[in-house]
Amino acid sequence: MSRIGDAPVLIVSKVTVEKTGKTLSVSGPKGNLKIEVPPAITVEIEKDQVIVKRKSEQKNIKALHGLTRSLIANMVKGVTDGWSKNLELVGVGFRAQSAGNELILNVGYSHPVNLTAPQGITFEVSENTKIKVSGIDKQLVGQVAANIRKVRTPDVYKGKGIRYEGEYVRKKLGKTGKIGAAVGGTGGKS
Questions:
Q1: pLDDT tens by residue, 69-108
Q2: What is the pLDDT of residues 19-43, one digit of tens each?
Q3: What sign does the dihedral 179-185-187-188 (CA atoms) show?
Q4: Number of domain units in the chain
Q5: Are 22 and 34 in contact (CB under 8 A)?
Q6: Where on the phi/psi map is residue 73: left (φ > 0), alpha (ψ -120 to 50), or beta?
Q7: Strand pairing partners for 135?
Q8: Are residues 21 and 93 in the same domain?
Q9: Same structural domain for residues 46 and 89?
Q10: What residues have CB less than 8 Å from 120, skipping those under 6 apart?
Q11: What is the C-alpha end-to-end distance of the chain, expressed in Å?
């Protein structure tokens, strides 16, 4: 039983949902998105809601049922409010700046790293250390944010790097000093 798939998706007043063949398109004030509906799933559009139904009770079809409903709900929210992910740079001298649709990162390498925003994604930089990635497609926003984080993942020893806002990086302990002296070694001479 897919509890998520059984819930209808409410259509707000500014959004229009249209189905042509297997393609479902959602249009709103911020833009429009399209999705291909799997053949085992049927989508019915009523006056103010979208109802997703499945044709079979197989386990993978039930999973597709919930997934399709979630994707449609994310599309409706994306074209009305939009999606965003916040990242922060932690480290001495780490900074970011945006120039048009490019993001320039100085994160401890010998050269700055330039990232170009795909269509539909915008970058906002505040305080030189906070980056906001926003757009209408939830998957694309998350992927771009993950690509930015991958430029300099947080170090487990010092904690510096690019991390999501509010992300906790658990630090490891480093070496605790001279191991040879603690064991009783004399440095190789006897």
A1: 999 999 999 999 999 999 999 989 999 999 889 999 999 8
A2: 998 899 999 999 999 999 998 899 9
A3: negative
A4: 2
A5: no
A6: alpha
A7: 83, 121
A8: no
A9: no
A10: 31, 135, 136, 137, 140
A11: 73
